[in-house]
Design goal:
The complex is a heterodimer. Helices cover 25% and strands 17% of the residues of chain A. Chain A has 4 helices and 7 strands; from the N terminus they run H-E-E-E-E-H-H-E-E-H-E. Chain B contains 10 helices and 5 strands. In chain B, the strands form 2 sheets. Chain B has a 3-stranded parallel beta sheet, sandwiched between helices. In chain B, strands 4-5 form a two-stranded parallel ribbon. In chain B, helix 3 links the parallel strand 2 and strand 3. The chains are: A alpha/beta, B mainly alpha.
């Protein structure tokens, strides 16, 4: 479905326009780590997720901050305040793991595929453009991940 | 998403991720990305498919063991499609028979019909929430009835007061619309059959009173005096797939 060739022309053109406007990074950083079975993993979503009682994402220029999602969150407490209406939400309404696979990550940790699950996970609202606007909050987030002893972050878009 | 990965990696955190638009990942070259052939909004493929979701997540994590990068690999499987997926025919889903709802003096003509539609959908939505063990409704802090009334008030001569300090009027509108759509889609999803996402979207926007109100509002609010309302009307009230739909 997200193959450009399968999309309507107006949607394909929109996505190609974003591609053409997106920044190119001069370097490709690469961090190594221990085997997967010893890694501590956090999820980072850009779906505009947060707890029901958290402040919603604002959708304006200040919308590059993140929300914290503790590992013991109940899936039924997660809501979405993403500014875009141009992606499917019906799947998320049925199953939060479709967008935020915390239960799946816990299962992979239980079977030893990864070492452990971080205490905290995070969500951005991925609409601000260009995405270089996330730089400051992403760099701040790295410090929090390190304090949680995270050595693998899984980025999940929407 | 690619940019967040780039900055985290620069700060010493190894990242991997899912890519929904391969062309974007090719351009931005995040350290590790698994492209998946799933629709936007469904990065793990399909709801209530834990084994499939686990396989996608496992494939993304395995990229962390590649010796060098950037890595952009393709996930080889399509998302499973429920065999019971049905298309909602016009007027078939959520049959709502509108009586002559009493109109309050001065209320917009859609206000009474919308309130009645919400009342008739409520049992389905409550059934859905019980089955799921919760609801995705609740970003606006309003009841469904209040969310509907707030949205319809924008169709009147003067826009409603902003009753949400700290939010722009446009944001308050957007969150009320998000909740209204969550309420309707949860109600429809609780009904017999498994409705596809496009069928639900078309039903909400083209078959319901709420959708009629939003299409009206999308046109009207683009001329609002309030910039935040104009921005929401232009970008965030009605999906591009509905605005660009082929017309008979």
């Amino acid at each position: 479905m997200a193959r450009l060739a399968d999309l309507a022309e107006w949607e394909r053109e929109h996505l190609l326009h974003l591609r053409d406007q997106a920044p190119r990074f001069p370097t490709q950083p690469w961090v190594e780590g221990p085997p997967l079975a010893r890694r501590r993993v956090a999820l980072i979503s850009t779906a505009g997720l947060h707890g029901r009682d958290d402040p919603p994402f604002t959708g304006n220029a200040g919308a590059t901050e993140y929300r914290v999602i503790p590992s013991d969150v109940a899936a039924a407490d997660l809501v979405m305040s993403h500014v875009s209406v141009n992606f499917d939400r019906t799947g998320f309404r049925r199953d939060a793991d479709l967008v935020f696979p915390l239960s799946r990550l816990k299962e992979l940790a239980a079977e030893g595929f990864v070492g452990s699950v971080a205490d905290f996970h995070y969500s951005f609202m991925g609409a601000p453009f260009p995405p270089t606007r996330f730089e400051a909050s992403a760099r701040r987030l790295a410090g929090l991940l390190a304090r949680d002893r995270v050595d693998a972050a899984v980025l999940v878009p929407v | 998403m690619s940019a967040v990965g780039h900055y985290l990696e620069e700060e010493g955190i190894a990242t991997t991720g899912i890519s929904l638009v391969r062309e974007h990942s090719e351009a931005m070259r995040p350290p590790r990305a698994l492209w998946v052939p799933f629709m936007l909004g469904r990065p793990l493929g399909a709801p209530n498919a834990p084994a499939f979701q686990r396989d996608v997540l496992r494939a993304a994590l395995e990229l962390l063991e590649r010796p060098r990068g950037p890595v952009l690999e393709d996930y080889p499987h399509e998302a499973p499609v429920p065999e019971t997926d049905v298309v909602i025919a016009d007027g078939e889903a959520c049959p709502v028979n509108f009586g002559r709802a009493p109109q309050r003096a001065g209320a917009h003509p859609l206000a009474g019909r919308l309130a009645e539609e919400i009342a008739q959908l409520r049992p389905w939505r409550e059934l859905g929430a019980r089955r799921r063990g919760g609801s995705t409704f609740g970003v606006s802090g309003r009841t469904p009835e209040d969310a509907g009334a707030f949205v319809v008030a924008f169709l009147g001569e003067t826009p409603p007061e902003n009753d949400r300090p700290g939010q722009s009027l446009g944001q308050a509108l957007k969150l009320a619309v998000d909740d209204l759509r969550a309420f309707y889609e949860e109600a429809a999803a609780a009904q017999p059959g498994e409705f596809g996402s496009e069928a639900l979207m078309r039903w909400f926007y083209l078959e319901t009173v709420a959708g009629e109100a939003l299409l009206d509002l999308q046109r009207k609010a683009r001329a609002s005096d309030d910039e935040s309302v104009r921005t929401v009307a232009e970008r965030s009230l009605v999906p591009r797939a509905i605005l660009n739909r082929p017309r008979a």
